[in-house]
Automatic annotation (TrEMBL):
Keyword tags: Coiled coil, Cytoplasm, Hydrolase, Nuclease
Gene3D superfamilies (UniProt xref): Exonuclease VII, small subunit
Record protein name field: Exodeoxyribonuclease VII small subunit
InterPro entries, A to Z: Exonuc_VII_S, Exonuc_VII_ssu_sf
Species per Swiss-Prot/TrEMBL record: hydrothermal vent metagenome
Coiled coil start-end: 41-68
Enzyme Commission identifier(s): 3.1.11.6
Class of this enzyme: hydrolase
GO molecular function: exodeoxyribonuclease VII activity
GO biological process: DNA catabolic process
This protein's record includes keyword Cytoplasm: yes
One cellular-component annotation, GO: exodeoxyribonuclease VII complex
Pfam families named in the record: Exonuc_VII_S
Amino acid sequence: MAKKSFESSLNTLEEITRALEGGELSLDESLKKFDEGIKLAELCNKKLDEAQAKIDILLNKNDSIIAEPFNSQRD
């Protein structure tokens, strides 16, 4: 698999999900798409982990890293 950006991988993963949910693929095609989707999900997770590591470094306070959890829901 060629090196893809997070956004490209996520878009492809969404396309695969739609195709699988559509139910029009043969069993073999579904298995191939599923396998590709798993690989893309792993790639996306890896890229998110790398981004989190960079964020942790940017949150460096007083010469020590203080990891602060990301809260996606704002109060």
